[in-house]
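Standup notes, protein team

Yesterday: finished cleaning the Chloracidobacterium validum set.
Today: Prolipoprotein diacylglyceryl transferase structure.
Blockers: none.

Input for Prolipoprotein diacylglyceryl transferase:
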Amino acid sequence: MSFPYDIRLPWGTIPIHLVFELLAYAIGFRLYLRARRRAPSELTTEQAVWILVGCLAGAWLGSKLVAWLELPTLYWRFRAEPLVWLQGKSIVGGLLGGWVGVEVAKTLTGVRQATGDAYVVPLIVGMAIGRLGCFFTGLPDGTCGIATSLPWGVDFGDGLRRHPTQLYEIAYLVLLGLALEHHPSRPAPAGARFRWFLLGYLAFRFVVEFIKPRPFLYPFGLTGIQTVALMGMAAAAVSLWRQPHRAQATPTVAVEGGSPRG
């Protein structure tokens, strides 16, 4: 196999990453709509639309911000070229930015219902599909690992056998999805599943970044992604800790005609 493994047609070449990215968006959105139909919801159509807008806007902004934080010297070098600043994105930033965007939209539209759980399966499936595109793109994608002597190392075209970190992430996402599907004997509060997903994924990204060729520019010898992942894990953990306290307030909120926010 030669990288990048683009699709070559008589009239041109289609980047393989674009193909898998479009598949990820299409399949993920389809799964999200199915999850929304199955889950009981008090949202109006207008509220649901604004929450989706907040999610998409926050995800885009977050993905760009973390990409800039990861390689600040590179982007500064091309500060006079706006097109360069529009390139690059981060899944970690997209997840956290989307979470913030949803919470802002919910606050502005008066929604107190937890909505995050419906995103878990679509995110896992979409991210796994997208990582296949990263793998087949090879070195230009910038997601390959450092050199390794392990037998499953992959030569992405530079003569070095590298950690296929994209495949590691796909395998981890599958395991994480299976773990989250295992329901405890006592139902978890609404919204807890999404926060556990965030904790699990961000923990993986914090660890796997150590075997990627990244600049460790931040305190304690961390990368930008690792620093943001730690902050995201802390936010998710605090949010999980607060949920039991919200649950205790449910009877009072119910009398007032509301529902607990998660």
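Follow-up from PR in the comments: The chain has two domains: 15-39+113-137+172-245, 42-111.
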